[in-house]
Amino acid sequence: MHNVVFVLGPPGSGKGTICAKIQENLGYVHLSAGDLLRAERQREGSEFGALIEQHIRNGSIVPVEITCALLENAMNNSGDAKGFLVDGFPRNEDNLQGWNKQMTGKALVQFVLFLSCPVPICIQRCLNRGQGRTDDNEESLKKRVETYNRQTFPIIEHFEKNGLVREVKSERSVEEIYADVVEVFNQAAKV
Ligand SMILES: Nc1ncnc2c1ncn2[C@@H]1O[C@H](COP(=O)(O)OP(=O)(O)OP(=O)(O)O)[C@@H](O)[C@H]1O
Ligand SMILES: Nc1ccn([C@@H]2O[C@H](COP(=O)(O)O)[C@@H](O)[C@H]2O)c(=O)n1
Ligand SMILES: [Mg+2]
């Protein structure tokens, strides 16, 4: 059984940054759904490359069959891990249903780490990111934020109703955020 922490928040809220620190210090393996999709987009011979790029530019969500297969493969190929930080997933109802269908009995969701941050700050961070992402531009960001508000936030609310959400405000320095995140993981380890 894989232990899983879902990590959600608006685009640019710092999910990847904080997951890298958790992976470095707390023994969880970081799996970013977006990174896995970008790698699949680049893989020679992938039948999904063009479809993935279309969704990434439009800020829309790739069908779960593709994303969940990438996540499950990555988990199975990671060897023994204390748990997995599944960053940027589930992003919509299709992701959630597909995960439940494919991963029930194979993964246990410990909690959902929600990095909350005002959208204008998130947009500025993405525009300054400098990684050459095809979706870090004003037009794509507008669509990504819309997708977050319309499709992803309701998923966070769903988990909130089930008592699974641990919110950490991420409009602060990485050090301040990470200190609160460590506390969340310490509390989770006690139960
Ligand atoms: N607390 C912070 N304060 C200032 N800048 C930050 C902070 N956290 C992350 N950043 C910067 O903001 C940018 C976006 O961060 P990151 O890639 O971690 O976000 P993300 O939530 O994974 O975004 P996306 O959803 O687009 O993948 C990066 O350039 C990162 O260095
Ligand atoms: N569950 C997911 C996650 C991501 N995507 C697509 O990738 C884009 C980038 O994601 P980041 O988390 O790296 O920002 C995202 O806008 C989607 O197009 C997805 O489809 N499903
Ligand atoms: Mg990211």
UniProtKB/TrEMBL annotation:
Listed SUPFAM superfamilies: P-loop containing nucleoside triphosphate hydrolases (SSF52540)
Biological process annotations from GO: 'de novo' pyrimidine nucleobase biosynthetic process; UDP biosynthetic process
Amino-acid positions noted as binding a ribonucleoside 5'-phosphate in the UniProt annotation, renumbered to this chain: R38, S60, I61, V62, G88, F89, P90, R91, R133, R144
Name assigned to this protein: UMP-CMP kinase
Organism: Caenorhabditis nigoni
Primary localisation category: cytoplasm
Residue intervals passing through the bilayer: none
Keywords annotated in UniProt: ATP-binding, Cytoplasm, Kinase, Nucleotide-binding, Nucleus, Pyrimidine biosynthesis, Transferase
Binding locations of CMP: N95
